[in-house]
Amino acid sequence: MRGVPAARPAPAHAPRAALRVVRRRDPVVGMTGLALGLALDLGTARTRLLLSAPGRHSTAISERPSACGDPGARRWPVRHGMVADMPGCAQLVRGALRDAVTEQHPPLERVMLGVPVAASRLDRRAAYAAVSSAAGCRVTMVEEPLAAAVGCGVDIADPRPRLLLDAGAGIAEAVVIRDGEIADAGAVQVAMGDPAEGTGCSRYARERVAAMVADLIARIPAALRATARQQGLLITGGGARDPELARRLCAELRITVSPAADPANATVRGLACLLSTVENTRKDLHDDHQ
């Protein structure tokens, strides 16, 4: 298992965090002249997509296991939230696009892709390479907890610190969000599971997550810590549906813990919301995939 740093400083501005933008010559082409955007959440266990076209508001999320290959030799190219198998991930994305994008759709112009806060530069390059080769269009990366906050309706531009825990199937990340960016973060690579899919969260995983969140809260500057605690902790990801996790966090941290209303889909919905933001600030984007 690759090591994950206890915390990672946030980039200068969240909407531009870890952006990878590229235009290719072989877009997925539809029948009309409009442009199509795609929000893509590549999870360890599940992959979720949400299409967005100008003048349309789509709420239909496509979901499938994050697996590729024949039933007898299935591969899981995303491990602990990171792309570990680039060809396999590209195959996964191509299959998902075949199911979601039809000839009646406009051309696919941009993919808004979620990546873990803990992803290294190499992890991000692997995700970029796999998705851009499969989609054949521009790819923009946004850190998943920030997207999840947007998907839950959190005002990420608020100067008051907001705590969020994104508990996925292979990685749990806790972040402090304020002034439109991730101010601080922590991560542990543990299997959180999802009760809705028949997989639970182990006591060991809950212990590690609780310790990680407690450490993150302790690092918040003293002048802001009380405000962050008053705001409470919002949980997204499939692990948010584990009631024992919320109870343990509430008891150990002594703060209000609130699972999101639709926790598993928070990230992909937030990515879809951010698609229009990226289009409105296109002049600020840069291709830093070298």
Range of strand content: 15-25%
Shape: globular
Number of continuous helical runs? 7
Mean pLDDT: 83
What's the number of structural domains? 2
* DSSP summary, beta strand count: 12
Helix content: 25-40%
Class based on secondary structure composition and strand pairing: alpha/beta
CATH superfamily of the largest domain: ATPase, nucleotide binding domain
Main sheet strand line-up:
3-2-1-6-7
CATH class of the largest domain: Alpha Beta
Poorly predicted regions: 1-33, 282-288
Terminal-residue CA separation: 26 Å
- Rg on CA atoms, Å: 18 Å
InterPro entries: ATPase_NBD, MreB, MreB_MamK-like
GO cellular component, one term: cytoplasm
Keywords: ATP-binding, Cell shape, Cytoplasm, Nucleotide-binding
Family: Belongs to the FtsA/MreB family.
Commentary on this structure:
The chain is α/β, with parallel strands linked by helices and about 290 residues long. The protein folds into two domains: about 15-145 and about 265-285, ATPase, nucleotide binding domain (Nucleotidyltransferase, domain 5, 2-Layer Sandwich), CATH 3.30.420; about 155-265, ATPase, nucleotide binding domain (Nucleotidyltransferase, domain 5), CATH 3.30.420. It contains seven helices and twelve strands. The protein has helices at about 85-100, 120-135, 145-150, 205-220, 220-230, 245-255, 265-280; strands at about 35-40, 45-50, 60-65, 80, 80-85, 110-115, 140-145, 160-165, 170-180, 180-190, 235, 255-260. It has a five-stranded mixed β-sheet, sandwiched between helices. Strand 6, helix 2 and strand 7 form a beta-alpha-beta unit. The longest helix is centred in the C-terminal third of the chain and has 17 residues, at about 205-220. It is globular.
